[in-house]
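TA notes, week 10

Several of you asked for a full example with nothing omitted. So below is the full record: C-alpha cells for the whole chain, then the designed sequence directly under it. When grading your own attempts, check the secondary structure regions first.
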C-alpha cells in the first residue's frame, strides 16, 4: 500500500469561529453528492472542549473548501452527563435512510485526566442535521473489565449483524510515562450486535494489542473488506513519539496480523503541519480514487489533510 500526500486542508486558523480555536480531530469524510465531500470534524475551543462540525470540500480536489458549519452539529452534553466536557467524532454508518454518527464523549476527573465512552447520533437528512440518541448515558459505558475507556468505535453491517471494533481500557486504563505523567492505556476490542445502537456485552475481545512497551494506545480504526480479506488502518500512540498509523489484515475480522510496515504513509519532513504526528485516519473511495483523511501535529492542532492511494 502506498499513498501520495496531497496536502493540508484546514485548521482552526482557517476559520473565524469562537468554538473552534485548537485541535481539528478525527476527520470523517462522507460523500454528500458527486461534487461534495462533507468532512465531519471535531473542532476544539480554547479550553480544548470538542464539538462536532463539518467542512465541505470538492470531491475531485479536497484541498478546495466549499463551505463549513457555523454552529456545531453535535454539541456537548448537559452537566453530569458522560459527554459534558467534549464530543469527538469516531465513525459513520449508513444504514437504510439513517446515517449514524458514532462519537466519543469525555468527562474530566480529578484523580485521572478523563474518562471516555461511546455515544451515537443519527441523521435522516443525509448529514445536514443530527440528533443525539445518547442524551444521558453512553451506548458503551464503563465496566469492570474496561473501566476508563470504551470509545472510538467503527461499525459495519454484514447481513443482519452489526460488528464493532472499538478502543477499550487495559487494566485500570492508565500507565505512568517517564516523568510521572499519566497516559491512557487502551487497545482494540471487538463485539457483535443485532442493533446499531444497543450493545449488550460486558467486555469485548481484544483483537489488536501492543507489540512493544513503547506502545500504549491502539485507536481510531477504519475497516473494509477487499478480496474477502478484512483490512484495517489504525492509530498507534507511543510513549517516545507522537501518533503513527498502522495497518493489518484478517480473514475473519477478529484474528489480525499486524503489517505496520505496509501502511505506506508516515510523518513528513520538517517543517510541516504533519512532521511530528499523523493520526485518526479515515478512508473514502470516490470514483477511481481512494482518499485517506487524517489529523496532523498535536492531535490535529496544526490541522487536517489528505492523501491519495497510488
Amino acid at each position: 500500500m502506498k499513498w501520495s500526500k496531497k496536502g493540508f486542508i484546514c485548521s482552526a486558523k482557517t476559520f473565524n469561529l469562537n468554538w473552534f480555536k485548537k485541535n481539528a480531530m478525527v476527520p470523517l469524510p462522507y460523500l454528500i453528492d458527486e461534487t461534495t465531500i462533507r468532512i465531519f470534524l471535531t473542532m476544539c475551543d480554547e479550553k480544548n472542549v470538542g464539538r462536532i462540525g463539518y467542512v465541505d470540500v470538492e470531491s475531485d480536489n479536497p484541498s478546495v473548501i466549499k463551505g463549513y458549519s457555523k454552529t456545531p452539529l453535535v454539541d456537548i452534553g448537559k452537566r453530569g452527563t458522560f459527554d459534558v466536557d467534549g464530543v469527538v467524532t469516531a465513525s459513520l454508518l449508513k444504514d437504510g435512510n439513517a446515517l449514524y454518527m458514532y462519537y466519543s464523549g469525555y468527562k474530566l476527573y480529578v484523580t485521572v485526566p478523563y474518562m471516555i465512552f461511546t455515544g451515537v447520533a443519527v441523521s435522516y437528512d443525509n448529514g445536514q442535521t443530527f440528533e443525539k440518541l445518547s442524551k444521558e448515558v453512553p451506548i458503551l459505558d464503563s465496566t469492570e473489565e474496561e473501566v476508563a475507556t470504551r470509545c472510538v468505535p467503527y461499525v459495519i453491517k454484514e447481513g443482519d449483524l452489526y460488528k464493532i471494533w472499538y478502543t477499550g481500557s487495559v487494566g485500570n486504563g492508565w500507565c505512568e510515562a517517564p516523568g510521572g505523567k499519566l497516559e491512557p492505556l487502551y487497545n482494540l476490542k471487538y463485539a457483535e450486535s443485532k442493533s446499531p445502537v444497543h450493545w449488550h456485552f460486558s467486555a469485548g475481545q481484544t483483537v489488536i494489542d501492543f507489540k512493544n512497551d513503547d506502545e500504549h494506545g491502539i485507536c481510531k480504526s477504519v475497516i473494509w473488506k477487499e478480496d474477502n480479506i478484512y483490512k484495517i488502518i489504525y492509530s498507534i500512540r507511543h510513549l517516545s513519539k507522537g501518533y503513527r498509523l498502522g495497518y493489518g489484515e484478517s480473514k475473519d475480522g477478529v484474528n489480525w496480523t499486524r503489517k505496520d510496515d505496509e501502511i505506506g504513509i508516515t510523518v513528513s519532513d520538517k517543517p510541516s503541519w504533519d512532521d511530528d504526528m499523523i493520526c485518526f485516519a479515515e478512508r473514502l473511495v470516490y470514483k477511481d480514487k481512494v482518499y485517506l483523511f487524517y489529523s496532523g501535529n498535536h492531535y490535529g492542532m496544526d490541522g487536517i489533510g489528505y492523501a491519495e492511494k497510488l
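The longest strand covers residues 161-176. Use that as a sanity check on your answer.
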